[in-house]
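We treat protein structure as text, and this decision shapes the records that our systems exchange. The tokens are whole numbers drawn from a learned vocabulary of local backbone shapes. Below, we set out a record of this kind in full and without editing:
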Amino acid sequence: MNIVIADDEPWVRTSLVSMIYEMEASWEIVGEASHGRELVDAIAQWKPEVAVVDIRMPEMDGLEAIRVCRELSPHTRWIIVSGFSDFQYAQQAVKLGVTEYLLKPIHPEELEKAINTIALHHEEYALLLNRQFENELFSLTHGLTALETESIYSPLRQGAFLAAIYYFDGVARNDELENMHGEFTSRVRKLFPSYLGHGVNLSVYTWTGAECIAVGVYDPTRREAVKSVSSFLKHTEEVAAFFRQDNLAMTCVRSEVCLNYKAYVQHFQQIQTIACTRVVFGVNRAWPFRDMNLRAQEEKELRLSKMILRLAQDYKNKLYLSYQNTLAELEAHVTAMNTTPFSDRLRREIEDFVRIVFGFTLQGPVGEGWIRQWKDQGESLLRSGREPVSQDLINQVLSYIDLHYKSNIGLSQMASEMNVTTSYLSTLFHKKTGTTFIKYLTRLRILQAKELLCHTNMQIQQVAEHVGYYSARHFTKLFVDMVGVYPSEFKKRICQPDQDPSREK
């Protein structure tokens, strides 16, 4: 762990340095400060795991400096060393979240015990802060909150972004693919403790339901943070290799570095546009965005990829009419392309994709031979039963939400139960309701929370848990964004409806 020491007496700093370096564990002292403003600068620069701070210092006292530094480095844990046993100081320290309050003269064993206590809880604390970060990223991604509402010190506003986006393709049933998606996410999440630290936040989530994103958000000024995120993403590729099978492809697109959230959003949209070229570029591999983007410049191959991928989605969702329409487009495009013979590599990659996703091997010449096999495969959709009725599907989803909104539910879970793809169900849901699944669910939960705040004596934490949120902090942020006031303020004013300032956005 990295440590910063702050005391206005040089001999005290020297003594503390000596004590720490003589401890059995190897801690690194990355900075020293002789007054409060120097401490603020050191915390901003190093964002250490631990800061050992004196209270009485010139320019800015230790308590005020801690108050400022908590915004700059939420991970940092604080140990106060002071010659004053005044209860008022101790009380302020507790309010600031100080871990230990040690009186001078300090005994080496006391200091070592305090630092070891922090070290033991460091991983748990880092995971807690990272869960808060994941909630904030998820809400921001799905339009539940705005970037402007985040703290100016939030990694979402100050961090750089680097991601690996995974796409699942396979002949397996939708529920089987969803289970694999969940297992992959779980295994990636287990990697977090090895890479979390100051300047690094990690998340694994889906944006549209059609992909799994492993992303690291880090302080670009810290070399070790950049290295940690790169290693984490490389490790996720090793996890993906474990899942690849004859009937399941996991293809990764490595993003470029994005220096802010808005650039990350734009870059993700670029990746989504060209990700279909895995059909002709090759599945079951990890491709740098730059290489895949270069291949996507071939307009004919890009269109071919989109059509084959759309055909695969129609097939999995049992959409017979849409399948036949897509196949007619594909036939015309392949015929036009076939004036120039397909390269061996292009043919091989398409055959590989079809084998994994459709479950049969393309044979014969490119063109009429391929189209005939796809037509035969399409006829099996007629024999397998009628197409799912879109309105029936959405009615089922809405009924399920009404019954289970308190639970941890997701659209992908329902899609697997209905045996359709998440992206298809997401498109239907938006078309039928005019909003996304996440926004609909959040609105319902907040409306239920308002009822509970108005008609029960539940505490905020209890209300949050009752409507499906296990973090009161996350619930409060969503409530404020949607209603315009804090839950506690809403509860106080609800008895005076005419004066209630709440407004739903």
Summary: Confidence is low (pLDDT under 50) at residues 501-505. The first strand starts at residue 2 and ends at 6.
